[in-house]
Amino acid sequence: MPAQPKTQKASPMSQDTMILTVGQVCQRLTISEPTLRRYAKTVRGFPRKIPLGPRRVGYLASDIESYVADRYKAAGSLSNT
Fold it and tell me: pTM of the entire structure?
């Protein structure tokens, strides 16, 4: 029987490397694009944007999820005081 050629399976993109568009981030955070731009400039600890091209940026999905989790924890600690 002839040997089967090895085929590489396309590995699914992990959460660490998945890049979200500005629209996807706005949808996840339920904010508008102008608010996202303002957060990116003024909110301490907001995830860094990743340049994808001359006029396009994205955000790491894992960074956005961490930010949401941190905000959730902060809200919980405020209600316990």
Answer: 0.74
Q: Mind listing the pLDDT tens digit for each residue in 20-73?
A: 999 999 999 999 999 999 999 999 999 999 999 999 999 999 999 999 999 999
Distance CA 49, CA 60 (A): 8
- Nearest one of 41, 12, 15 to 28, comparing CA atoms: 15
What is the C-alpha to C-alpha distance for residues 62 and 16, in angstroms, rounded to an integer? 5
- Residue 43 is classified by DSSP as S
In the three-class reduction of DSSP (H, G, I as helix; E, B as strand; rest coil), residue 58 is classed as strand
Which of 69, 47, 44, 74 has the alpha carbon at shortest distance from 58?
47
Number of Cα atoms under 13 Å in the Cβ half of residue 3: 3
